[in-house]
Structure formats: C-alpha cells, structure tokens
C-alpha cells in the first residue's frame, strides 16, 4: 500500500554505511529553502532531523489516489490483487527460507560426509603408516638377524681358517720330521753299505789268489765235460749213420716215414679248413649277415624262443595288412605268386631292385615275400662291406657259399646296396671296394635256383651298369598319398592306442571323442611323411599318455603330437642340401607304401 503515500514502492537509496539517504528535496519553495539551509549540517544531524520531517504533498497525493480508487470500478479487484501479490511474496519468501534451510541441511550432510571421508583417509593413512612402520621394523629385525648370521659365519670361517692353519702347521712339522728321519736312515744305510763294501773289498783283495785258482779249476772241468759230450755224440751219430747207410731197408723205411709224416700234416690242415667251412656254412652264419630266418644250431641256442616261434609260423599272404596303391599292390602280388611257384617248381629265381624314399617298406616286403614263398631270408647292409677292406672279397664269397647251402631257398636282401655297388667309371672307389664289386658280379652273373637276390636303395642311379644288367624287376616304393595316409593313421591308432586301452594297461586310458574325424584330420596334417614316420607318430601318442598326470590320452594331446611330427618333418626336409634333393628324386613321390 506504499503507492497510496507516494513512495511508488521504490527502496530509498542507501549511503556508503548502509543507512538510507534522505529523500530528495520537495518541489515547494519552502522545502527548497530548507534544503539550502541544511546543506551545512552533518550527516548525523541530517539523519536525526529526517525523523521529524513531514511531506504534506505526499498526503495530498495519497488522498487524491484514494478518491480515484474509490471512484474506480476495479477498486476491489485491485485490492484483492494486491493482497494476492503480498501473499505470493510471503510464500516465495517462505519457499526461499525452506530452500535456505534445506541448503543448510545439505551443507551439514556434506560437511559430515567430508568429515567422515577425512577420518577414513586419516585412518587409512595411519594404517599405512603402521604397516610401513611394521615393515620397516621387520626389515630392521631381519637385517639384524642377517648381520648376526653373517657375523657368526665370519667367526666360524675365522675359526675354521685358524684350525686349517694349525693343521697345516702340524702337517708341515710332521712332514719335516718324517723327512728328517728318512734322511737320517738314508745316511745310516749309506754309511753301513759303505762299510760293508769296504770290508768286502778288503776280503777280496786278501783272497784274490784263492778266487782265481777256483775259477781256473771250474773252467778246466767244464771244458773236459763238453769235449767228452762231443766225442760221445759224434761216435753215436757216426755209428748210426754207418749202420743206416750200410742197410738199404732202413734207408727206405726212414724216407717213407718222413714222407708219410709230411703228408699227414698237410692232410690234417686241409681237412680242418674244409670242416671249418662246412661247419660255418651249416651251423653258423657269415659275418656280413645281420639277420636271417634260416635255422642254425648256434642261433637256436642263443634265441630258443624266437627260433620256436619262427618254426611254428606258417606261410602267410605277402600283402597281408599292407597299405599300397592298387597298381603297386597288384604288381607286388604278381611277384610274390611268381616267386612262390618258382620255389615249388625249383626254377630260376629272378633278381629284384626296390627303390624309393626311406621308410616306405622295402625291408618289410622282402621279409613278407620270403615268408609267403616258404623261403629263408637273410639281410645284410652294403655299408658293412667297405670297412672290411681286403677281407671284403672273402666275406662276399662266404655269403654266397652259405646261401647256396640252403635247402628251402634263400632270399638275400641287401639294404643300402648302393654303398658298395657304385659305378666304377665315374665314382672314385678304392681297390678293395672295386675287388668286392667284381666278386659280387662274379657270383651273380647267372640266375640261381638256390637263392634270390633283392636289392634296396634310395639312390638307384648310382648303381654300376653291370649291376643294373643283373636286375630282372625294378619296383618303386613312393610316399603314401592322402587315402593311404588316412588308412595308416587309423591302422597305427588302433595298434598303439585303442588296443592297449582295451587291454586295460596301467596308466593308459583314452578320452571319448570322434576318432574317425580326428584320424582324417591328422592324415591331412601328415602330408609328405613316410610310413615309418607315421608309425613313430603312433609311438609318440603312447609316450604322451604315459607322460600325462592322469594317464588319459586326449584329443588335444593327439593333435599336438601330430602337429609336432609334421613340423619336424618339414624341418628335416629343409635341412636337405640341393645335392641330396637331386639324389633323392622320389622324396616327394606318389602314393605307394608298405607299413613297417
């Protein structure tokens, strides 16, 4: 309602000290004069006089405004509006008061949170300080303990050093004492020996005449004895020669006896050699033969169980359990059937060359071929011929003589035959090796009904032409293809994993997984590997199972071993030099394989 009194709801201006300044001068003249008179008053006096000052014009304006308001038709609405504005301002003031109180409460809560956080940080810092203090104290205690141990060790070492020095001094004193005693003994011995020699020399000088006389008497007796023996022997021999020469029958008897004695000596020597060769051919085996299925008394005594098993074994199919390319299998089957019929009909055997990368089954097929045909087999290595030197020729002749005595027929398998059957024209070979090659050519010049020759080589291009001329069949064994590898993996997985697990061996169990899918996957991983390498992979599966803690073979273990084997195979291939790659042309060959 301030507008009724002429203030127009404006806040009077305040001075610098916060007190309201006096209102402006009134428009009347009297007011102007009064203001002019108050100019010289102080600020405090002016404020004191302000309370007693009255503005009459304000009353007039208020009366005029009241009359105007009474005459207005909206007077009541204006009054209500003014009341509502005042109520709104009071509510706004209360809301601000509540907001201020809420702000104060929030500030208190925040202050409490800050205090709590500070206390927590203080406790954490105190805990940290205590831990550091405890650690530091522990370090100090440990350091003191270590220093005590070091001090004790130094004391012990010092005591030990002093003891060693004392022992060394005592040992030196004892050694000096012993040396001094030995020196004294030696001096005493030398003095005693010198005295004895002097006494002996004195006695010898005194008895010199007697000694010379004894020597002369002994020499005279010895000479007389020798002369008597010579005379007696001469007389006996002279009488015997006279009696022999004068009697013709005695001369003939003597000559005949000496002749018969010489004949007996040479006959016994020859008979002994013949008997030894016969015994070696029938009972033993030549030194060049490493393995044979031929029965011998010595081998039967050394290995009775193996000999009994070999005698009980019946002829089997040459390709039983063999994984081969169909064309190669057909060809080897024809060779096996022809060899068996040749043996039954006592025909001439044909010589065969089997060549290809290592581990493709050449040796195994030779054994199977001999067993299928009912023949004995003997295995020798070409590398054993070279170290024998000049004895190699005799050894080769013994092998063929031994092979010719077999009643069942013998399949002579020479592994790594290129080691001593090299070309004589281009290869630099020794005279002993050349002689051994010539002896081999001499014994194999014609086909024989007693033995069959089978050569195996990884580099057949190194053979001498005369060796190639003696070969009737040449069979190439190449690396297995994908289908053959898969069959081999399945074969060895069954042999080395499933069968031992089914037998219930200790620490050998197999986890359940899709064996067929895993075998197919491993066959693809084993590209380029030979049958021997795949068989070794089967052995590595067993080793992985035995090395595990629980003795259980898992799919991951099988695949890891297969991957490791493939990686090692690639490394071996990378190690081959260019010359080795040229020599082993079939190292990445086709599909044929015979398992070991």
TrEMBL record:
Q: Which residues form the AAA+ ATPase domain?
A: 348-481
Could you name the Gene Ontology cellular component terms for this entry?
A: mitochondrial inner membrane; mitochondrial nucleoid
**Keywords on this record?**
ATP-binding, Coiled coil, Membrane, Mitochondrion, Mitochondrion inner membrane, Mitochondrion nucleoid, Nucleotide-binding
Note down the stretches annotated as region Disordered: 1-35, 110-139, 154-174
BP-aspect Gene Ontology terms: mitochondrion organization
Q: Where in the cell is it found?
A: Mitochondrion inner membrane; Mitochondrion matrix, Mitochondrion nucleoid
Does the record bear Transit peptide in its keywords?
A: no
Q: Does the keyword Nucleotide-binding apply?
A: yes
Lineage: superkingdom: Eukaryota
Classification via InterPro entries? AAA+_ATPase, ATAD3_N, ATPase_AAA_core, P-loop_NTPase
The primary site where this protein sits is: mitochondrion
- Ranges annotated as biased composition (Basic and acidic residues): 110-128, 155-174
Task: Write out the biased-composition intervals (Low complexity).
Answer: 129-139
Q: In its UniProt entry, what is this protein called?
A: AAA+ ATPase domain-containing protein
The terms under GO molecular function for this entry are: ATP binding; ATP hydrolysis activity; zinc ion binding
Q: Which SUPFAM superfamilies match?
A: P-loop containing nucleoside triphosphate hydrolases
Cite the PANTHER family for this sequence: ATPASE FAMILY AAA DOMAIN-CONTAINING PROTEIN 3 (PTHR23075:SF0), PUTATIVE ATP-ASE (PTHR23075)
């Amino acid at each position: 309602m301030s507008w009724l009194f002429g203030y127009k709801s404006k806040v009077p201006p305040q001075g610098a000290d916060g007190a309201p300044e006096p209102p402006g001068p009134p428009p009347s003249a009297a007011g102007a004069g009064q203001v002019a008179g108050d100019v010289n008053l102080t600020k405090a006096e002016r404020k004191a006089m302000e309370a007693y000052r009255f503005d009459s014009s304000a009353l007039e304006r208020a009366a005029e405004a009241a009359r105007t308001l009474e005459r207005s038709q909206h007077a009541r609405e204006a009054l209500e509006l003014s009341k509502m504005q005042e109520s709104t301002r009071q509510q706004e003031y209360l809301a601000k008061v509540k907001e201020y109180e809420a702000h104060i409460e929030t500030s208190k809560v925040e202050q409490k949170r800050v205090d709590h956080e500070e206390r927590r940080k203080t406790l954490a810092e105190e805990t940290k300080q205590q831990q550091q203090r405890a650690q530091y104290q522990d370090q100090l205690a440990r350091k003191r303990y270590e220093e005590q141990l070091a001090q004790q060790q130094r004391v012990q070492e010092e005591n030990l050093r002093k003891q060693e020095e004392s022992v060394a001094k005592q040992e030196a004193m004892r050694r000096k004492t012993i040396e001094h005693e030995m020196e004294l003994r030696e001096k005493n011995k030398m003095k005693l020996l010198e005295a004895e020699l002097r006494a002996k020399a004195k006695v010898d000088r005194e008895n010199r005449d007697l000694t010379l006389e004894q020597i002369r008497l002994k020499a005279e007796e010895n000479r007389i004895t020798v002369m008597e023996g010579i005379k007696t022997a001469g007389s006996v021999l002279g009488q015997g020669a006279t009696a022999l020469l004068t009697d013709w029958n005695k001369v003939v008897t003597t000559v005949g006896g000496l002749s018969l004695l010489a004949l007996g000596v040479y006959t016994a020597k020859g008979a002994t050699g013949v008997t030894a060769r016969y015994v070696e051919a029938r009972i033993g085996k030549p030194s060049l033969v490493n393995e044979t299925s031929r029965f011998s008394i010595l081998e039967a005594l050394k290995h009775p169980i193996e000999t009994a098993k070999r005698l009980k074994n019946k002829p089997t199919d040459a390709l039983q359990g063999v994984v081969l390319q169909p064309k190669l299998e057909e060809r080897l089957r024809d060779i096996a059937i022809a060899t068996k019929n040749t043996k039954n009909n006592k025909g001439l055997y044909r010589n065969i060359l089997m060549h290809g990368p290592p581990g493709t089954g050449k040796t195994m097929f030779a054994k199977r071929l001999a067993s299928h045909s009912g023949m004995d087999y003997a295995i020798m290595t070409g590398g054993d011929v070279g170290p024998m030197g000049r004895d190699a020729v005799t050894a080769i002749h013994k092998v063929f003589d031994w092979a010719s005595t077999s009643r069942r027929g013998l399949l002579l398998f020479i592994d790594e035959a290129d080691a001593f059957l090299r070309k004589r024209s281009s290869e630099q070979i020794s005279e002993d090796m050349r002689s051994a090659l010539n002896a081999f050519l001499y014994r194999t010049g014609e086909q024989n009904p007693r033995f069959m020759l089978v050569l195996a080589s990884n580099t057949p291009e190194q053979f001498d032409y005369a060796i190639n001329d003696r070969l009737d069949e040449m069979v190439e064994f190449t690396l297995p293809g994908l289908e053959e590898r898969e069959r081999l993996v399945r074969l060895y997985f069954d042999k080395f994993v499933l069968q031992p697990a089914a037998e219930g061996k200790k620490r050998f169990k197999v986890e359940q997984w899709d064996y067929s899918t895993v075998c197919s996957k491993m066959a693809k991983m084993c590209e380029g590997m030979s049958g021997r390498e795949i068989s070794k992979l089967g052995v590595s599966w067993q080793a992985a199972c035995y090395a595990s803690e629980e003795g259980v073979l898992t799919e991951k273990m099988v695949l890891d071993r297969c991957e490791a084997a493939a990686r090692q195979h690639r490394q071996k291939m990378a190690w081959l030099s260019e010359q080795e790659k040229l020599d082993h042309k079939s190292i990445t060959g086709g599909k044929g394989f015979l398992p070991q």
